Amino acid sequence: MAFTSVKTNSVCLTWEPPEGLSEPLSYLVTWRSEGDNNSNSLTMSGHQIVIQNLTPAQTYTFTVATLYGGKQSSPVSATAVTEVPTPDNVHVKVDQTSASVTWSKPKIAEDDEVSYEVILNSEDECPKVTQTTSLQCSFEELTMGREYSISVAVQKNGIESKSITKTITIAKCQPTKECHPECYLLPTKKTNIGEFENVRRWTFGKSDSSKTVKNILVVGETGTGKTTLINTIANYLLGVQWDDKVWFQITEENKNKSQEESQTTAITVYELFVETSSLSLRIIDTPGYGCTEDMELDQMVGEHLQVLFQSEDGIHEISAVGLVVRAGQNRLTEFQRYIFDAILSLFGKDMEKNIVVMITHSDGILDRNVINVIRKADIPCAKEANGDPVNFLFNNRQSEDHSGREDVYQKAWGLSYISMVNFERFLVNADIKELKMTEGVLRERKRLEACVNNIQDAIEMEELKQKELKQIQSALKDKKEKFEVDEPYKGLEPINLPWWCFTTKATCCPKCKENCHYPGCRWVTDLSRCSAMKNGRCTVCTGKCPAHKHVRDDMIYVAKTRKVTRTAQAVRDKYKEQANIMNALEEDLRKSKIKQNELLLEAYQSICKLEEIALKKDSMSTLIHLDLLIEKMKELKDDEKTQKLIHLMEKYDVSNKRKIIRWMQQIKEQTTTQC
User: Fold this and answer.
1) Among 81, 107, 140, which residue terminates a domain?
2) Could you tell me if 427 and 443 lie in one domain?
3) For residue 287, how far is the Cα from the chain centroid?
């Protein structure tokens, strides 16, 4: 008797017929597992059987007895151990100098306990063996350019399965182009922050808790050389010198975009952990600005930063904010002014001494035009003893081909190197600012925007109610017993935003039938953390309803009207307790304004709150709402509040403000049209 195959859940058993007996013969085959008193049996003819539905990694005893002439021979027995199944879905992910392997539990009984042996092998290196019961394993500090094999085997009842082996190669830095100096792309581990794809982290190196980490936020318009500046910082931290004739990039260019388009469409945190440096850096790169695409996308920057600052695995402190300006500018463009204000308005007042100016494409001579522009624009930042903004000069030619003009390029290299030495000194001495105040500014700004948006909805609904009441008044005056009116109501409609809006959700109150935060908090799952909520209740809807009574959905409430037929008798019945129906209708008109006034006061209080805590309180994202608020305050004849809002409006250059407000309103109109 012999086994021709033994698998995880089956065996193939064969035997020879006994000598001296003629056919036909039959055979009794029995089998049972070790420790099991019950056996299975089968009577058959032939000399081979495949027994299935066996348990993996189990010892079985098989017997075969001959049946002939009503008698049974003595059985012949043999034992076999079924195989352990191999792991399923083995995948290896390589990140920089580490590798992680994952797999699925093999197809065996759920309650069966198994363990796994993972072996990392490489030529001239001792194997690394890991025993684990989890479904993943990681190996760190692998050598660049070396080939490794990773094997995973399942262990059960002291028996090991066949191994599944994967071969990987730890890549060297990838060359980005052939030139002098040689340019290479640094390998980085790419992850998302807060599970949000537009807020991402690219990590080079391994974090060392014994080293100081400084966080830098970099802000600049498209074309200022922000990407090259980030790579300059990376090369300085790597210790690259002119004589090394090499240049590393941590950023990745999108070759499918034209040069005029922004090369950054998401907030990216570049983490640099270099073994030979005593300092570690996180560089926060915000989207570039200036092209049509970016003008639409820049409305998302505040929300992206809110995700970054409030996520558990995000950034909770800042050492420096770098405002990137190109040398030779004699004025800030409208969109530079807008983006600087938009970013700075997110921070608390305590951030001012951490903000510096980084002048790119510099020839090494301080550009007084740029300095005067920054001073004239009254941009909050750290100051030198003479009142100039703290600034650092950078040349952007480090990655260009140096052939034939090495003396010129060496001077350009030296300029950026000296500036990095000075910038490092600034970072080391700068007080780290926690972002608790910044989170408050972000939340208050979101509350302001939600409040003002609800004001606009309330005004529209009020006007529709007034129209209906006036139609009723007119019909009663004409002594009509039956008449038609336009009845206002709130209906739900699906959100249909443009492609560049990254959310199709809104936080709404079904009880009040209002849009409390639209577009909604696309990154929160707990609505109590929505910016429209405070102390567990909504700050926007009329009823200030609890957060858990709200819904986050892809529908919004829209003011509509429908033709309905009314009768004079129905109106009289409605106001039967009122002495004068016309006066009662006027009272309803008055009540319809209460909601608007409450929201107006809420918006005014939000602006006042921002003025108290924000570093840049007269930003465009606030000013865009002031026209409406001033108009409505005038209607309330509240001179004090009206004058305060007008004073905020006058702080900005009127012509520039009007242009950008028109542009932002056009975008809002496009959004409304598509909804």
Assistant:
1) 81
2) no
3) 14
Q: Is there a single domain that holds both residue 608 and residue 662? A: yes
What pLDDT score was predicted for residue 510? 94
Looking at the structure, tell me whether residues 324 and 283 fall in a common domain.
Answer: yes
Domain CATH code at residue 414: 3.40.50.300
pLDDT value for 499: 44
SS3 120: strand
* Last residue within a domain, chosen from 28, 47, 81: 81
SS3 of residue 488 by DSSP: strand
Domain total in the chain: 4
DSSP 8-state assignment for residue 47: S
Distance CA 486, CA 564 (A): 7
pLDDT, one tens digit per residue, over 313-346 is: 888 899 999 999 999 888 777 666 766 766 666 6
Is the four-CA dihedral 616, 621, 627, 633 of positive or negative sign? negative
Q: Are 557 and 491 in contact (CB under 8 A)?
A: yes
CB-hemisphere CA count at 13 Å for 541? 25
- Give the residue numbers spanning the domain of 111: 88-169
Q: Does the global pTM surpass 0.85?
A: no
The whole-angstrom separation of Cα 140 and Cα 120 is 11
Question: Six-digit token pair at 298?
Answer: 């820049």
pLDDT in tens, 155-214: 988 889 999 999 887 766 666 655 678 888 888 888 888 767 788 999 988 888 888 999
